[in-house]
């Protein structure tokens, strides 16, 4: 007897699949098993592939690749479909992949093996499938691993339902899915797949007593498997008419159970017969457990997001009504501690005088207590400001309030009652520890642009001038709030000129990404000075409006600032302290509108002049360290000066004049520096005023002298200089003229 006859007698066919040529050779029995005439034939790959169930075809690719890699047999179960999409039979394939090399050197393979029909158990019986091969088990385990990973990464109920809808189970795949949720004595459908819109209407809301499989699963906590329509009609006759129209033939209803509590049910419906063997039930049960856990995590996460978002919205105020002549934008990004609200805050407060105040602050810590203290402190600052107190008085009262608030939390009520330390004393030690807060309070007159600033340990504001130059504005300050109850906070006054923008921020914006104050400010300055945040990608205009700069679009600028430190690009520009803990971010932008914003009437002049750059700084007798700040201000003011030697000369002369004021007078030094003119031909004028009437005079210091060279330096380095007596005191000034022209590519 021939081998072919023996194989045909046991319903086994032979095939040869040539992947290189894309052809499949079948003997008569193999052709019959594939639903073709029972005669040997050579067919294109696509003709044979169309006979396999799509899900099984996707799985066999992975099985074959694994067998090629491991040098083992490729074993799989395949459902054979007819031209109408009905399942004819189930076969088992065992093939040996053989590598072959084409003429062009490309490596390919051939599959040589057998196809054998396997008997499926009859519906309603407990007979199991033919034992599943090792490749089948690996396919099932790989599916469960992928499903578990995908469900674990889902962060919302919608994402969990999308993952559940995309699951393709090995060997059998449901055509319809539905997830039911139980709340009280009601059952409702919270998501479905494989149904038309509106199909869920009868199941949207039903009592748990309904004669419906999902309701019974929730009541009993036990799965229900319905292999045939007859099983469904016999067990649930009341709801069968609602289900009959979906043309499904098998159903599985499984409980969604977490920690012993059934929170809902999961339905998997099939258009092809499913016998629900023990292996298939095991897969469905495992998926149901993972789905239940994912839904619970998503529900908890959504509740936390809703709570923290509501808390953030209640603590972070909306910016007030529009202020004539002013634009305001603000951002808050929680990045520390995993909370959606932290210790940073900002506020805009209308004042009784018709002015308004901008406040920005940062409470120490990244926990819930920091958020609570922030909310209380913000309300206190708003209350003090609304009473009409000046900036220094507002911060003094806020410091006293925070110190008293923390002191009241240090005492344990159990100890006060003589009961010893209360429960959880060690856990609450950090909660009861004193906290401090930094704060910057700015009172603004919208008519004149006058700003009065009081600072409590907070970063200084930054000013973006009309030509795009950014300067840090040094301000006098005191200790952070809450450290010493009775602390004085000096006030600094300066004017925000038309077209200028002031930025207030917390240290999170500066130091996020492992940056320190210096590198963080350099990163922010690059964003502030860029021309990508104008109204329409603004840049320096050409033609008649040359030299005039468009004002920044504050909303766009605020987004760019946050993105620069908190977006994808920031991961490529980490600072020297990359392992430091991230912090919350708060930023407030205030722009005083200029002529080009529509505040001034009339047409612009035919040849407008480039806006002047100007900075003002006071150096007090008790703050000699601010001389370094004065040098930095001048250097930043001249960041694009053509001659670097002139910049060094200006910095040297400023340092000399300010130092002489502190050494030889009893008053403070007021520095005013201004650069005017077109690029390459500008004039720098620096004035340093003091309250002394003693005029400087030329000296002849010896070689070893440490002073007496101020006048000599100005004579050597300045183009012009002089001394102007004033009513009280004098003003020493010098001027420098830019000596070389810049090229067009150096224009701002």
Architecture blueprint of SSEs:
Elements lengths: L2 H7 L2 E7 L4 E4 L1 H6 L7 E4 H5 L4 H17 L3 E8 L5 E15 L5 E12 L15 H20 L3 H10 L9 E8 L2 E8 L12 E2 L5 H8 L3 E3 L2 H7 L4 H5 L5 E9 L2 E10 L7 H38 L10 E8 L10 E7 L5 E8 L4 H19 L4 H20 L2 H4 L12 H4 L4 E8 L5 E7 L5 E3 L5 E3 L4 E2 L12 E5 L5 E5 L1 H5 L5 H13 L24 H13 L18 E8 L20 E7 L6 H12 L6 H21 L4 E8 L6 E8 L19 H8 L2 E6 L4 E8 L11
Parallel strand pairs: 17-20
Antiparallel strand pairs: 1-2, 1-6, 2-3, 4-5, 5-6, 7-8, 7-12, 8-9, 10-11, 11-12, 13-23, 14-15, 15-16, 16-17, 17-21, 18-19, 18-22, 22-23, 24-25, 25-26, 26-28, 27-28
Helix pairs in contact: 5-10, 11-12, 16-17, 18-19, 19-20
Number of strands: 28
> What form results from the Cα inertia axes?
elongated
- How much of the sequence lies in strands comes to 25-35%
Q: How would you state the average pLDDT, rounded? A: 79
Task: Please list the strands of the largest sheet in the order they lie side by side.
Answer: 3-2-1-6-5-4
Which structural class do the helices and strands define?
Answer: alpha+beta
- Helix count from the secondary structure assignment: 20
Question: Stretches where pLDDT falls below 50 for ≥5 residues?
Answer: 121-134, 423-427, 535-551, 597-607, 741-748
The percentage helix is: 25-40%
Q: What is the rounded Rg?
A: 39 Å
Instruction: Give the termini separation.
Output: 94 Å
**Major sheet summary line:** 6 strands, antiparallel
